[in-house]
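Title: Prediction job returns without error message
Component: structure pipeline
Severity: low
Priority: P3
Assignee: unassigned

Description:
Job completed but the reporter wants confirmation the result is attached to the right record. Sequence as submitted:
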Amino acid sequence: MDLPGPVLREVASARHVHPKVLDALARLHYLKGEIAVLLASHPDCDHATRVFLADAGIAVPPVRHPVSEPPSRQADEDPEEEFSGEDQPVDEESEAFKSKYQLSQTMGVAEKIKIAQTGDKEWRTILIKDSNKLVSGTVIRNPRVTEAEVLSIAKSSIQNDDILRVICANKEWVKNYQIRKALVENHKTPLPNALRYLSTLTEKDLAHLAKSKNISSVLSTQARKLLMSKKKH
């Protein structure tokens, strides 16, 4: 049963799967870390399968948890939902998240990059903070990344400057006002980009930035100039 990774992930993430199917997949694909964790976390996974995975070195959650992400990507594709509060943050205290984090500590760079390319939200949350720039830089190019995640990244003190450059280069992402504002406020955003986005902000935000000590003097000075210009008109 040599199934491709995306198919395995879809089966392991399905809402209802017969325990025998999960057991068969576990015994055939237990060496595939992400798949093994998904199988172990599935609410229909039985005790014998969990014991097998635990014996194989997989960090098995002690209790059954619903799969964190269904295969449907409707929420990923609907920015209205993401910014209305329905895109809940990842629970970093959950056993499923901790299992993936522990697994990531044992992975090599190539394996992390592979998961960063297509991994779910929990994997993206973990790997975007990876110290290796190749790994974290791959996460932002993951086609499943949502605008809500991009906003969170733009607001963070991300160490990999290349990630902010990728965000700035994405025309769809920078159409979002909150993302542009966050990029202006992030001191790692390239100055030409920050200046361009600054000119699109509201008077209220310009007034705040004109007084801010958390952005460069170039930006605060330009914010004052833009504010004065808007008031004249």
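Comment from assignee: result matches the submitted record. Residues 63-86 have pLDDT under 50 and may be disordered.
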